[in-house]
Amino acid sequence: MSGAEHKRITDASKRYAAGVLKYAQMGYWQPDYEPKESDVLALFRITPQQGVDPEEAAAAVAGESSTATWTVVWTDRLTACENYRAKAYKIEPVPNNPSQYFAWIAYELDLFEEGSIANLAASIIGNVFSFKPLKAARLEDMRLPLAYVKTFRGPPTGIVVERERLDKFGRPLLGATTKPKLGLSGKNYGRVVYEALKGGLDFVKDDENINSQAFMHWRDRFLYCMEAVNRASAESGEVKGHYLNVTAGTMEETYRRAQFAKELGSVVVMIDLVVGWTAIQSISNWCRDNDMILHMHRAGHGTYTRQKSHGVSFRVIAKWLRLAGVDHLHTGTAVGKLEGDPMTVQGYYNVCREVVNEVDLPRGLFYRQNWGGLRKVMPVASGGIHAGQMHELIDLFGDDVVLQFGGGTIGHPMGIQAGATANRVALEAMVLARNEGRDIRNEGPHVLLSAAKSCKPLQAALDTWRDVSFNYESTDTSDYVAIESVA
Amino acid sequence: MRVTQGAFSFLPDLTDPQIRAQVEYCLRNNWAVSVEYTDDIHPRNTYWEMYGQPMFDLHDAAGVMSEIVACRNTFPKHYIRVNAFDSTLGWETIRLSFLVNRPSDEPGFRLRRVGSEGRVQRYLIEAYATDKPAGRRY
Fold this sequence. Notes:
The structure holds two protein chains of two kinds. Helix content of chain A is 39%, strand content 16%. Chain A is α/β, with parallel strands linked by helices. In chain A, strand 8 (268-272), helix 11 and strand 9 form a beta-alpha-beta unit. In chain A, helix 15 packs across helix 18 (440-452). Chain A is elongated. In chain B, 20% of the residues lie in helices and 29% in strands. Chain B has helices at 16-28, 61-74; strands spanning 32-38, 49-50, 79-86, 93-101, 109-115, 121-127. A four-stranded antiparallel beta sheet of chain B has the order 2-1-3-4. Chain B has a two-stranded antiparallel sheet with strand order 5-6. In chain B, strand 5 and strand 6 (121-127) form a beta hairpin. In chain B, helix 1 crosses helix 2. The longest helix of chain B has 14 residues, at 61-74. Chain B is globular, with a radius of gyration of 17 Å. Classes of the chains: A alpha/beta, B alpha+beta. Chains A and B meet through helix 7, helix 9 and helix 17 of A and helix 1, strand 4, strand 5 and strand 6 of B.
């Protein structure tokens, strides 16, 4: 398009004459705009349709995610419309991808209701993703200004308080999801929970689709699981837990289930991401009032986070969930069966755990983000991992993570207790070795083999899963090459 | 039974050189090491007795080791743990905790069930050892 077409029209009589203008002409493209500390910032990856110029496409995203419609309206003039208009202020081509652009957009803080992810999401992703002039759009990252962050309560428990309540420090926590995830009766289900906890796990977990089906009603599950948790606690002298999934069809029923979990003495409840933002913030408040750890299973996220060209990056979802207030969040394993490039996954972990995120392009973090004292979320690594990968997991993710070995516990050839023990011994041996100064990334397999000399279950686990790995190419990777100093 | 509190209880009991290596790791991280002991090993017993203050200004592993040994000599049949405290902003909590002594005989815990409404059970966990007064257990 010609120069005039992406110049903002400042003469009010021309700007507000009835008819259709380019979004850039309406004022949604302002390359000289300097974002304020208090602005909400968003970075979109956009793929304009053939013939649509990238500045206009970026302006359209800014317009459709704030005040614009397709035509000029005179009622703009009843407002301080300059203030409410989002501004696209920078575009740049995506490295090595000529059809895509990064569009940098700033939003005035007044556009957002305090303490409401539903409102934030409706604004930022409510409209633009179906917009015809774009072939595809993806929300890559956001910077939430400190003033806005402080309107959220954040995690009810957080890493620090969770560890203090459990009295477990200096090593990753260990979990497993009960398998098979569907079909077990309450009594049989509780057996799996007991064996795994007694064998050495800290937590066992309901899966995302365990709610209240004909084969196992929820009260039965809760009662048998808490029998298992208390038995295992008495057998070990440790605090143990089972993530009781309280996800239900209505919020009333969800609260009823959470209340019962509390009456039975559970330390943790679980909710699925599919319940939606308002329900998440509500159950988070309930957890705060009831001293409960809130485990978030990110069920369904892959429908919009995985493809690089279209959707919402998981790092944005992780930011929203830290604001909304969850204590545990599944953030990927990098080495297991589910999607995840190692550095991109580390970026999610940093969103969960750091006090301030610095800009880190190879890890996909485009902005400095100050969390304003909001508690830290415990990341959860789950999906196709086993004891033989312990050194890789600890090297990638450190101590503040829940490592969940479902199949890797329950599928152990010597039984569930043995599977749990194998994982716990592998974990403790690896942490001990790392603390002693050993290079576990390279010496890890050797550390495992020597720990297995005094632990038959670990030897059996290593023999069974020795060659299992999931080396597929990730779809969601950084566009920036890691340089030595940040890699 | 074997109480498995602390970071390394699934491994064979740590030797003194192994303990010292962990203490050195804590000191490298600028964490303050402290020693605590108890003969009430309940999973919810947060406050063990402090064997002196956290050693904020002691940066020498040999010094810490002598405290551990002194505590062991005074309380040979108690559970003793080493904690490392991190005062960094956003943590301000213990970053590593592991056992360095345990009684040779660990009788374990009784699980009491008290029937409540419907099928609900109230659970009570009690260490057999705490049937006796403090100091005469183990």
